[in-house]
Design a protein that fits this description.
Layout (H helix, E strand, L loop, with lengths): L3 E5 L6 H10 L3 E5 L6 H8 L3 E5 L5 H13 L7 E5 L3 H10 L4 E3 L4 H8 L4
Parallel strand pairs: 1-2, 1-3, 3-4, 4-5
Helix pairs in contact: 3-4
């Protein structure tokens, strides 16, 4: 079984720069913009062990709406939801949507993912 990370990004961000380091460590990577028509399909097909949502920038409402849709989608197996960055009000809103999510600063993301599944 391949361990997949699903990165939710916007055009303001470069998910390939973030994801490249994880791909080198053996992760399978899937990426989607939150407003993409097939975003939920991509997430369901990739069956990720974790979904990484960036809350920085003007896109946070799109990202949170996608996270809420992903939680309601019966096709997903409820991956670990990791929210990265964001202002205090955005984090509070995201906690209301995904109370069991993990909320980290960008520099903490590698630590969280490393402990999810050991990749050497």
């Amino acid at each position: 079984m391949v361990d997949t990370l699903f990165f939710v990004h916007t055009s303001e961000q470069d998910p390939n720069a973030i994801a490249a380091a994880y791909q080198l460590r053996g992760w399978d990577i899937a990426v989607s913009e939150p407003a993409a028509v097939d975003a939920l399909d991509r997430m369901a097909e990739s069956n990720p062990v974790a979904a990484v949502f960036c809350l920085d920038g003007d896109c946070s409402s799109d990202v949170m709406q996608f996270a809420e849709s992903a939680l309601a989608d019966d096709r997903t197996n409820r991956p670990l939801m990791v929210f990265v960055g964001g202002a205090a009000n955005e984090i509070a809103t995201a906690r209301g949507i995904a109370p069991y999510g993990i909320f980290v600063r960008p520099d903490e993301l590698p630590w969280v993912l490393k402990r999810l599944v050991v990749k050497i």
